[in-house]
Amino acid sequence: MKTSYIIDFDSTFTQVEALDELAKISLKNNTNKQRYLDEIESLTTLAMEGRLSFRESLNKRLQLLHANKDHLELLIKKLKKKVSASFSRNKEFFKENADNVLIVSGGFKEFICPVVQNYHIAEENVYANTFIFDVNGNIIGFDANNPLSEEGGKVKLLQQLKLKGEIHGIGDGYSDFQLKESGMIEKFYAFTENIKRDSVSSKADHIAPNFDEFLYINQLPRAISYPKNRIICLLVGSIPKHAAHFFEKDGFKTVSVKNLEEADLKEVGMLLLEDGISLSNEMIESASRLKTIGYLGNSKRQIDRDFCRNRGIVLFDDKKNKWKNADFIPRRMANFINNGDTMMSRNFPNLNVPQKNDSHRLIHIHENVPGIMARINGILRDHDINIVAQFLMTKKGLGYVITDISRKYDKTVLKELKSVEHTIKFRVLY
User: Fold this and answer.
1) How far is it, in rounded angstroms, from Cα 57 to Cα 45?
2) Largest CA distance in the chain
3) Which of 325, 309, 308 is nearest to 317 (CA)?
4) Which keywords describe this protein according to UniProt (predicted)?
5) Superfamily assignment of 3-217 in CATH?
6) Beta carbons of 272 and 296 less than 8 angstroms apart
7) Which residue has the higher pLDDT, 49 or 346?
């Protein structure tokens, strides 16, 4: 059965509200700029939360814009740089599902089509409003016959389209939820990567902090094997706010506690510790999902580095206790999770590898015994899997290998690689 994906544009496909951005451009030299900007932003919010009819909000915003075609060209350039990060890294999904993805928006085709065409979304799959211009190219209105200019316009449009098969909707606003409320779609995913509206999220079938989460839930092709919002990053002690913000901005689920005794380590994937905190081997052993530890100081007498290494846990610290370690350590931890880099770790072989966009990356941590690489590569050979690139380093009896393979492969190979004798940890990175 065919599945169609209805995706909103403003604050979903892109990080911003396009009309708000257009206003910043068109009103740049207007003496009443800030008053107009505040009014436009307020009108946008009222409409997105369902407290003002969409058509009324649209009419009032266009009257305040004072925009023309030249301003639109500048807007398009800006929007191309403001595509939401999780959509940007999953361009392959749009290529493979070009016929099934529909952009449905209360925005305007004049600026939406040039942005989404880079993601294999054809103009005929973009449903949005259109501007009306005067002879000088000034925006003076919109096509009032377009159902998307009306309240409940997305519902009316889908009634006209009569799509067959299952339909999933992804968006951040009340008009997106209306599709579910009307029974026009099977599931509604509240997209919160850029903005979270409680009035919308509370009614969603599922909250998607990013597009990776949506693809993961529906077992669809994706750039990241496991969404970062599902990886818990535990911060213990007096961690600088900017370090916590770094993890949050990168998409990790961040939890802060004052001391380790308060923490349940069973579900923790990343652990950042204030200088002076000790981490016992018993605690490490209880953290079955732990992949990396960051220590804001010298961990030598606080953490058993060999114990961590033998369990496939990468440790980063700063033995010189530099003031910049609250920037440096979180960045190294994230680089390991995101790309597999172990450069400047305290207990792992140093490996810094380029990111590949046309392959899947496998990470295999194992005891460095004779013949293990032959067994790993033998499994890949037996499944006719092409190795695009492979990187191997060893340290103190541990082997760390990163293998980039072609995208198409039998998923049973993952179970076989994980079950190779002497394997410590195995995961698919992307």
Assistant:
1) 9
2) 77
3) 325
4) Amino-acid biosynthesis, Coiled coil, Hydrolase, Magnesium, Metal-binding, Serine biosynthesis
5) HAD superfamily/HAD-like (3.40.50.1000)
6) yes
7) 346
